[in-house]
Amino acid sequence: MGAKFIRLHDVATEESGSALAALLTSPEDRVRRDVMLLLNPEETDSGNLQVGYTTVYPGCTTRGHSHDHLEEVYFFTHGRGIMVVGDEEREVAAGDIVYVPFGPFHTTRNPFNQPLEYFWVTTPHGAKDQATRGSGE
After folding, report:
1. Would residue 2 count as lying in a domain?
2. Total structural domains in the chain?
3. Could you tell me the residue range of the domain that residue 117 belongs to?
4. Whole-number CA gyration radius for the chain
5. Residue 24 within any structural domain of the chain
6. Which one-letter DSSP state was computed for residue 37?
7. Which residues contact residue 115 at a Cβ distance below 8 angstroms, ignoring those fewer than 6 apart?
8. 3-state DSSP percent of the chain in helix, strand and coil, to 5
9. Residue 1 covered by a domain
10. Per-residue burial over 35-70, b = 16 or more CB atoms within 10 Å of its CB, e = otherwise
11. Helix and strand tally (H, E) in the chain?
12. What is the pLDDT of residues 58-112, one digit of tens each?
């Protein structure tokens, strides 16, 4: 028998009563993610940055949100998923970065069989002006 190569992302999860999918009986159940706040604005010199890490479970999604006063950057570290920003929807995977400007609704979905994990960083509108004033220019 020759070598066999298996991509974990291509293998279906076994169905059973103890699987996560068995708990997801309504659309609201599919909002399953864990968020860790790693750095809050009050812990930074500028008071502007917030950093977190999110895990979106297989078959699940985030609620999504928008913010007119914050920019956000996502850095995907594990798995694959779908990132929606406004009317644009793209598949994302480990190593991808997504910039979300001020304003549009955005959310992540994970229709795949492995957790989707990513860091996110936000900074408020006006942070550039504050940084320039603070740098002595």
Report:
1. no
2. 1
3. 8-134
4. 18
5. yes
6. E
7. 55, 56, 57, 58, 78, 79
8. 15, 40, 40
9. no
10. eeeeeeeeeeeeebbbbeebbbbbbbbbeeeebeeb
11. 2, 9
12. 989 999 999 999 999 999 999 999 999 999 999 999 999 999 999 999 999 999 9
